[in-house]
Request: fold
Amino acid sequence: MKIFLDTANVEHIREAAGWGVVDGVTTNPTLIAKEGRKFEDVVQEICSIVDGPISAEVVSMEAEGMVKEAREIAKIHENINIKIPIIAEGLKATKILSKEGIKTNVTLVFSSNQALLACKAGAAFVSPFVGRIDDQGGDGMIVAAEIVQMLENYDFDTELIVASVRHPVHVVESFMLGADIATVPYPVLQKMVKHTLTDVGLKKFLEDWEKVPK
Ligand code: G3P
Reply:
């Protein structure tokens, strides 16, 4: 199971990459905007830190514009995949880009039917937003589980990225149901490594070590 970092903050990416657990990075226009830097500069720097799939999103609303943007973004680095929104124009763009060998990550997915269409259009990755589904009173993990089953039933090459992860339990649920990837915000990754009993246990070990004759 792969862990991606869901951020455009290069300090956080550098720190987490140093832990040896980051397989890729996902960004979106909101995450890029938070950094106050040029899109190309941020994406290029992320690619220099993590040697794995890096998602960068288009903002056009028509297929033609999406494809044009995607071709330019893809030139930044070979590891880049293009985030495309799951709308009809996005499906058209996904099909064209997959034929050209440009990988896509179909995003803003809230239902398994949307995921099915993304897979059929040739998406390399599909990203259900589980946290935002939960926010609306749904169960994002049920959608993720349906997509896992669909990928298995029909042997699609598409990889499932559980996105809009809000807490460590979402990550546990992701790997229990067999998702390929969970993309986690940095604060969630920090919570994943932490346990109060680890801190208590470590403190006691260090105290007891002081008692050992030197
Ligand atoms: O990268 C897309 C997704 O993970 C966004 O998450 O927390 O804004 O719903 P969130």
User: Anything to note?
Assistant: Residues 18 and 49 are 10 Å apart (CA to CA). Residues 2-211 form a domain with the TIM Barrel fold (CATH 3.20.20.70). The longest helix spans residues 196-211.
